[in-house]
């Protein structure tokens, strides 16, 4: 019933429940940073503070990425359009890193602080992850020509590969001082790699698969239809 009520509040051309979940995930990710940066310790340690910290932690980013994969499944954008979008997200993530750490980077460059500036500039956060995930799913759609069975098989094989690859290579780190910053965006237990593509691509792939299954078997036009 709740999903039917939500559907009445939004334009029919939108995927209402997916929009709602995406908005919730974004709000939770924003508020957790605000609490961590500005809240007093007594707020962080309170029951309400712990609840908000939890909601902005484990559930938020996976939910956001899964919904992104869901929307990529219904996207009509061409491969080149998605590639452009992904590059903007990756570049935007790097520029955001520079902006967030601008004062600290200045201190490094004028010699007041001894630290590696590239770790702060090329920190693998959620925007580069989103960009790389768009590239991955766009390649899947391009190869499979949007065939349900081909898309499903390729996506499932990639999911299995990610799980196996992550379990055996998480501690591997290249010794190349340049390639290590590229690796941080892709995989590995690296200090400045918060959202590497592997294993985080699992979530957009799950959302992507979920949506194409809904369409293939006529289970509904929106996430909430399946539960209505």
- How much strand? under 5%
Spatial shape: globular
Average per-residue pLDDT, rounded, comes to 86
Total helix count?
14
**How many structural units, i.e. domains?**
1
Give a nutshell description of this structure.
By secondary structure, the chain is mostly helical. The chain contains 14 helices and no strands. The mean pLDDT is 86.
Written description of the protein model:
The protein has 228 residues and is mainly alpha-helical. It has one domain. 72% of the residues lie in helices and 0% in strands. The chain has 14 helices and no strands. The chain has helices spanning 2-7, 16-38, 41-44, 47-55, 60-74, 79-100, 102-109, 117-121, 126-144, 148-169, 179-186, 197-200, 202-216, 223-227. The longest helix is centred in the first third of the chain and has 23 residues, at 16-38. It is globular, with a radius of gyration of 20 Å.
List keywords for this structure.
single chain, 228 residues, mainly alpha, 14 helices, 72% helix, globular
Summarize the SSE layout with pairings.
Blueprint: H1 2-7, H2 16-38, H3 41-44, H4 47-55, H5 60-74, H6 79-100, H7 102-109, H8 117-121, H9 126-144, H10 148-169, H11 179-186, H12 197-200, H13 202-216, H14 223-227
Helix pairs in contact: 2-4, 2-5, 5-9, 5-13, 6-9, 9-10, 10-13
């Amino acid at each position: 019933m709740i999903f039917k009520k939500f559907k009445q509040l939004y334009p029919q051309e939108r995927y209402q429940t997916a929009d709602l979940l995406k908005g919730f995930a974004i709000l939770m990710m924003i508020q957790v940073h605000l609490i961590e940066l500005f809240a007093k310790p007594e707020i962080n340690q309170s029951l309400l503070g712990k609840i908000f910290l939890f909601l902005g932690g484990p559930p938020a980013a996976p939910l956001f990425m899964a919904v992104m994969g869901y929307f990529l499944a219904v996207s009509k954008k061409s491969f080149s359009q998605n590639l452009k979008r992904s590059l903007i997200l990756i570049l935007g993530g790097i520029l955001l890193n520079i902006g967030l750490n601008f004062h600290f980077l200045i201190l490094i460059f004028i010699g007041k602080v001894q630290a590696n500036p590239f770790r702060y500039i090329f920190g693998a956060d959620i925007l580069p992850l989103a960009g790389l995930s768009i590239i991955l799913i766009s390649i899947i759609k391009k190869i499979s020509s949007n065939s349900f069975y081909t898309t499903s098989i390729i996506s499932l094989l990639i999911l299995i590969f990610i799980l196996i690859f992550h379990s055996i290579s998480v501690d591997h780190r290249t010794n190349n001082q340049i390639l290590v910053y590229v690796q941080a965006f892709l995989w590995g237990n690296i200090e400045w790699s918060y959202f590497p593509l592997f294993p985080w691509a699992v979530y957009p792939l799950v959302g992507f698969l979920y949506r194409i299954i809904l369409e293939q078997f006529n289970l509904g036009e929106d996430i909430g239809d399946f539960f209505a």
